[in-house]
Amino acid sequence: MTISVKPDPLPQLMTYQEVLDWLGVSKSTFARWTREGKVPPGIKLGRHVFFRQDELLAWLESRKVSQPAPSSGPYDEWR
């Protein structure tokens, strides 16, 4: 009896432009974040840079902020 184990699937790779569109940020903003080490590193294959979607999702998840508790100020209805 032979037991075969399936290898883990390759992670989904996203192009630079796909990441920009997905995040809705400008090229200059994402380039700055990259230089500052704020985003997961890219993977260079030939002349192209790709980003792992699972790493970007984990990065986004780590950026969550908790919602402030509703205040009872006089201007709350304007929000």
Q: What's the helix and strand layout?
A:
Blueprint: E1 13-15, H1 16-23, H2 27-35, E2 43-45, E3 48-52, H3 53-62
Antiparallel strand pairs: 1-3, 2-3
Short description:
This protein is of the alpha+beta class and 79 residues long. The protein has a domain at 13-62. It is built from three helices and three strands; from the N terminus they run βααββα.
Uncertain runs are none
> What strand line-up does the widest sheet have?
1-3-2
pLDDT averaged over residues: 85
Instruction: Please indicate the percent range of residues in DSSP E strands (runs of 2 or more).
Output: 5-15%
Assembly level: single chain
Output the structural class: alpha+beta
Question: C-alpha Rg, in Å?
Answer: 20 Å
What's the β-strand tally? 3
- Please give the largest β-sheet: 3 strands, antiparallel
| N to C succession of SSEs | EHHEEH
Roughly how many Å apart are the termini?
A: 66 Å
Percent helix: 25-40%
- The total count of helices amounts to 3
